[in-house]
Amino acid sequence: MPFSGRKRIGGIVAALTLLGLIILTQPLFRTSPPRRDAPPQSSEPTSGDTLSRDMAIIAESSFTDAVDRILESAPWGNIAFSHPESMTLKETRVVELLLDLDLPVDSLKQRIQSEGKKLGAPIRVFPRMRAELISKDFDIAALTPPEQLISHIEPTMWKWQILPLKKGAAMLHLTLSAPIEFQGSTTMRVVRVFERNVWVRVTLGQRIGEFIGNNWQWLWASVLLPLGGWLWRKRRKQAASAK
Fold it and tell me: How many domains is the chain partitioned into structurally?
């Protein structure tokens, strides 16, 4: 073989040998770089959440403490009120309430003029007090303003006129409340609530009137009309016999 041919073959062999060495030195599979995952979210509150929660608790506690101080600063007084234990249907009665800062309950009871059972109780007193008498069993008309200023000089009085709307057991609800000024606004605060039963009776005359009112058509056709005819015929016979 001529020298140039051997030289060419030698170059090819050298190139193939170099390519083989390059392939053998490389890894069979190229792996991707490791992925950095986001750190897991902790279920425990962070310091910022804990601080916000603590501040909310402190704010709520301060709010309730301020309200409690307002309520505790109100002086004690006494109330006495009367209500009927029983009534007749369509009868009107008066419910009376007295409030005073100094007079005891027994003295207030003696000052009540309306009839009925008299009760009394201690109560927190505010500069303005509101008394309301509510019931679905009565027609109630207020005889005094519901909200009044409280005085040390004389008792404060509320009166209502009540008219029962049904017979049987009836309920009266007496609520005393006061307007409380707090953080620039006024809110009503319930001080005491009383509930009393009243038994509503029906008289014999009312029962007869109720029966006639409910059955007047039947009575007219079955009783009154025949009775009227009988009386007319009787009078006519008497007139004829007198002739």
Answer: 1
